Amino acid sequence: MKNYQQLGDNFQAPAPYAVASGGAALVGAVVAFASVAAAIGEEIAWVRVGVFNPVPKAASQAWIAWTTKIYWDNIARVFTSTSAGNTLCGVAASNVGAGAGETVGAVLLTGQIA
Predict the structure, then answer these.
(1) Which residues contact 89 (CB under 8 A, 6 or more apart)?
(2) Contact of 7 with 68, CB cutoff 8 Å
C-alpha cells in the first residue's frame, strides 16, 4: 500500500499555544498530549490515545473510573466532567486521587474528533 503514512494514535501538528512536555491541548478538533515542550506554532508529535496520569482536573469534581465521561476545558486547560462548552475526549481511568477537591486525575483518551 503506497498511501499509508502512520498509525493514527500519534500525529504531527503545530502547538496551538505553548505547552510543556506531557501537557494536554486542543489541537484543532483533537485533545492530545505533547510529546515534547513546544512554543506556539512549533510542529511536534501529539499523542491522542491512551491512559494518562496524572492530568490536571477541575478540583470541584469527583470522577468515578470508567463511568465518568471526561471533557477538555480549553479555557482553564484542565480535564473536567462538565460537558457544556468543553470537548469530549475520553473517560476517567481511575478513581484514585479523583475525588472532589483533588487537582489531578487519570484519563483514558479515546481519540474523539470534536
Answers:
(1) 31, 70, 71, 72, 79, 107, 109, 110, 112
(2) no
Degrees, nearest 5: CA angle 87-91-96: 125
What's the start-to-end Cα distance of the chain, in Å?
29
Prediction pTM value: 0.92
How far are the Cα atoms of 22, 44, 64, 86, 88 from residue 8, in angstroms, in the given order?
Answer: 18, 15, 28, 23, 18
Residue with cell 489541537: 27
User: How far lies 78's CA from each of 1, 54, 82, 89, in Å?
Assistant: 40, 11, 11, 12
28: which DSSP letter?
T
pLDDT in tens, 55-80: 999 988 999 988 899 999 999 999 99
